[in-house]
Amino acid sequence: MSRTYFGTDGIRGTVGQGAITADFMLRLGHAVGRVLRRRVDRPTVLIGKDTRISGYMIESALEAGFVSAGVNVMLSGPLPTPGVAYLTRALRLDLGVVISASHNPFADNGVKFFSARGEKLPDEWERDVEAALQEPPQWADSATLGKANRLADTRGRYIEFCKAAFANDLSLKGLRLVVDAAHGAAYHVAPDVFHELGAQVHTIGCEPDGLNINDGVGATAPQALIEKVRQHRADYGIALDGDADRLQLVDATGRLFNGDELLYVMAMDRVSLGERVPGVVGTLMTNMAIELALQQRGIEVVRAKVGDRYVLEELIARRWTLGGESSGHLLALDKHTTGDGIVSALQILQAVRRGGRSVAQLLEGVTLFPQTMINVRLRDGSDWTRNASLSHLREQADQALKGHGRVLIRASGTEPVLRVMVEAQDGAVARDWAERLSEAARAG
Questions:
Q1: How far apart are CA 121 and CA 132, in angstroms?
Q2: 3-state per-residue secondary structure call for 212-265
């Protein structure tokens, strides 16, 4: 089995093709179950899913695989990814399993795993599972088969967990919100969280039919939310993705705030409370304006590789609390072990309520640098790292942009493409350097 099955977000593919078939999911459940039993005598796993129609098939296949390996199974039904991570930890279970392809269209699906602590699992565990997949199955006999049952009130338990992330002395009374759950896993959770904290809630993307997840709604299609916020004259709009671990926020003017801006607000809210924030972790794509703004306030910014797993690893290594990606996947490790769109939204609204200022006002003086991204298709067999002209031009750009811009050149991990990104305070300067660097990359 190729390690390409496992990425920073588990196993993912189009259902009926590649990795996502009923047969493979049964074998995967069995292999994971065998690996678990090497560490625990009688393990129990929790399986949750989003609203894709294929989730029923994958859930049943994984359940059969686990039970056939002598592993007990609890089923939560539709529940956000961070909800599964929370319940796995809270119920002292041995593994959390989420069936979701996050922000992808309905035809895709995938599986991601959480440890007993509600955290992503290490590479060593993945290698053990891959090895087990290559071995013949070892079916449990009738007396040692696992048991399966539905876990009661997972929705209610997770709602209470989310509400606990909001300060007890504050409420959302007087706020008018539009909540967009992308027809995904949070459709029956997110509206109630904000309503029970006092907000007047309007909803879109909360009527899943198995085929409409992320279809024109949610964090990857925020225009629908912007229009609804204006229609209802709401104060804010909250958009989640299919598995609700990502957040996009819109204000009453239609301004869309990305993850970098929201991370800044979260950090400065903690500073306003007198908390020490030694640093935050962003990614290679984090906007330089945010980096400079935080540094001016004595907060170090460290860039990890793109992917929430890498952000989490860096946070744990440095014993820091806050990190995130421009896409809106945010981590607040004093609130949860993984990214959580609902909890992240509550952190932002908490800052608004505490300071009596809007999100735009909390970001006063911080303006994102324009970014220009150009994809350059590489010729077969070419090695862009040996392109002397590109290297020389890159040095010139770094020198010219020093202190008010930067260059990022990286190869795509999925296609023969070189991604050339330049950001600068002056958008025209960013475009000019990006075009010149891209031309040098093509010529090489």
A1: 16
A2: CCCCCCCCCCCHHHHHHHHHHCCCEEEEECCCCCCEEEEECCCCEECHHHHHHH
Beta-bridge partner residues of 45: 73, 95
**Which residue, 132, 119, 133, 128, is CA-closest to 313?**
119
To the nearest 10 degrees (0 to 180), the angle between helices 341-355 and 154-163 is: 30
Residue 182 dihedral angles phi and psi, to the nearest 5°: 60, 25
The one catalytic residue among 54, 76, 102, 438 = 102
Pairing of strands 279-283, 256-257: unpaired
> What separation, in Å, do the N-terminal and C-terminal C-alpha atoms of the chain show?
35
Residue written as token pair 């989490």:
312
Q: pTM (2 decimals)?
A: 0.91
For 139, what's the count of Cα atoms within 13 Å in the CB-facing half-sphere? 4
Instruction: Taking the CA atoms of 312, 344, 98 and 39 in sequence, report the sign of the dihedral they define.
Output: positive
Q: Are strands 11-14 and 108-114 parallel, antiparallel or unpaired?
A: antiparallel
Q: How far apart are CA 308 and CA 390, in angstroms?
A: 30
The length of the chain, given as a count of residues = 444
Closest CA to 35 of 78, 64, 69, 2: 69
Q: Is residue 227 packed enough to be buried (19+ CB in 10 Å), middle (13-18) or exposed (0-12)?
A: middle
Side chain identity at 233, as an amino acid letter? R
Of the pLDDT bands very low, low, confident and very high (cuts 50, 70, 90), residue 12 is: low
Nearest Cα to 237, choosing from 203, 192, 274, 283? 203
CA distance 165 to 173: 17
Q: Which pLDDT tens digit goes with each residue over 24-36?
A: 999 999 999 999 9
Kind and range of the H or E element at 407? strand 405-411
pLDDT of residue 18: 60
Single-letter amino acid, residue 315: L
CA–CA distance, 116 with 127 (Å, rounded to integer): 18
Q: Is 188 in contact with 78 (CB distance < 8 Å)?
A: yes
Report which of 108, 114, 310, 104 is spatially closest to residue 219, judged by C-alpha positions.
Answer: 104
Q: In which region does residue 153 sit, left (phi positive, over 0), alpha (psi from -120 to 50) or beta (all else)?
A: left
CA angle 44, 46, 51 (to 5 degrees): 160
Which pLDDT tens digit goes with each residue over 83-96?
999 999 999 999 99
Q: Is 102 a catalytic residue?
A: yes
Beta strands in 263-349, from DSSP E residues, in sequence order: 279-283, 300-304, 322-324, 330-332
Contacts of 95 (CB under 8 A, 6+ apart): 32, 36, 43, 45, 46, 88, 113, 114, 115, 116
